[in-house]
Amino acid sequence: MKQTRQEVSGKKISARELFSSPRFYIALTPHIFSLFLIFSNNLGYFYVFFIFYLELIVDNFILSFSVLFTKKEEVQEMYKSNWPKTFLALRSFLGGLAICLLYGFFATVFIFIGTEGISIKDVIANNTVLLAAGVYAITKLLNLGINIFRYKTGQQLRIDDGKTFVINLLTLVIFTVPGIHILLFLRVFIENIQLIAIILLFIIKAYIDSAFAVSSKKVIIS
Fold it and tell me: What is the pLDDT of residue 153?
């Protein structure tokens, strides 16, 4: 007998439930760690952008990889296609990667290069950036394992619904346009505006990313 999964309509997760969930702090950990590394090594706006950019690539991989653990009929319904889910996962990954590469090229060549006086080589050779991205990848894989378990036991509708990828992409867009231009303008009036901007971006991104890790919708199996 075929099982179907239905979303349970219920109240939104409360602040108390959110802050008492271990998953919230698992998702929050890499952002706190990255912020610590940035302050310890006095990294600027462009380095922070690249950390966020690598996190976006990680999110794309997690989103595509999660397709492999989703039921075939649900994947085909989600993508409106009868192709095997392996093909659909690969298509999702390559499509997301194309978006990342196109946006990364636009941001680095047309906005940051020359503005910050930092080359791509400087960023790639920076171990702090790679370490921050690595810690983010580890925690996302850990959260993926939790989501797979919850999906298999009927506690949530999707392993990954792509919201984190979209939010992180929007964060990067804000980071570059109008972010960099607002930063350059306010630098004339506020001495530590770059530091303030980095903290605000991290707080917003960390909270949204961590909240989405907890607030997956519950389902019933019938």
Answer: 87
